[in-house]
Amino acid sequence: MKTGIIDVGGGFRGVYACGVLDYCLDHNIQFDLGIGVSAGSANLASFIAGQRGRNFTFYTEYGLRRQYAGLGNFIRKRSFIDMDYVYGTLCRHDGENPLDYAALRDNPMEFIVVAANAETGEAKYFDKRDIRQDDYNVFKASSSIPFICKPYFIQDTPYYDGALGDPVPIEKAFASGCDRVVLLLTKPENVIRTSEQDEKLAARIQKKYPNAAEKLRQRANRYNEGVALAQEYARQGKVLIVAPDDTCGVSTLSRDPADMKRLYEKGYADGEKIKSFM
Length: 278
Hints:
Mean pLDDT: 94
Distance between the termini: 10 Å
Number of strands: 8
Number of helices: 13
Low-confidence stretches: none
Radius of gyration: 17 Å
C-alpha cells in the first residue's frame, strides 16, 4: 500500500499544513510520497528532513522580516518575496535555520516539487535528483507567484508558481503509484475559488509570458476541478481531504503572527484525522 501526501501551498496560509505535518512528525505518521506545490514544497522538505517546528518559525518569525517579504523587495528586485533570502540566506548549511539536506536525501520517502514553465505554462515535476546541498532552486521556482514575484530561472528556463501547472496534483499522485492520498488544502474544502485576482495578475505578465498568463486565468477552475476530483476519490475511500473550517484571517500574503498561530493550531488538531485514515 503506497500512501502519498499532497500539500497545495497557499502562501502564508501554508502554516495550516505546517501544523498538520508537525502532528504527523509527533505521531510517527509516515508517507511514501510527498508532492509539494508552492509553499507546500517547503513544508514537505522540512517534514521529510524530520525538522519539526522549523516551518512554523519561517511563517511566524522570519516571514515578518522586510528581507523576507515586502514592498521594498518588490521595488528593488521585482519580487515581493526574496526567494534567495528565504531559500538561500536562511536555509543553506551555514544559514540561520538550515534545511537538513542529508536527512531529506536519505529519507526513502519520494518527493516531487511542482513548478510551471513560464514560457509554456506546463507543469514541471522536479524530484530529489534536482535538489542538492544549498541548491534549493526548485523551491524558489515552485513558489514564484506571477507578477508578485519574478519568474525564477533554472538552467535558463523561467518558472512560476506550481499552482499554474498543477494546482491540485491528485492525478499525479495516483499516476506515481499511490493507492491512497492525503490532500492538504489551506482553504475550506467547499470554498469555490474565483479568478478575479488571477485575471489582474495575468494581465501583468501577458506580454512576456502569454502561455503562463492563460494558465493563470484557468487556475481557479482547475483548482475547483481538482478538489471535486479529490472529493470523488474521498467517497471511494482513496483520498482524505484535510482542510481548515476557516483561515483565521490569514491570506496568501498576510503576516499577522497571532492569526497564523491560530491557523497552525487548527492544522495540528486536524492532523488527528490522518491517524484513523492510515
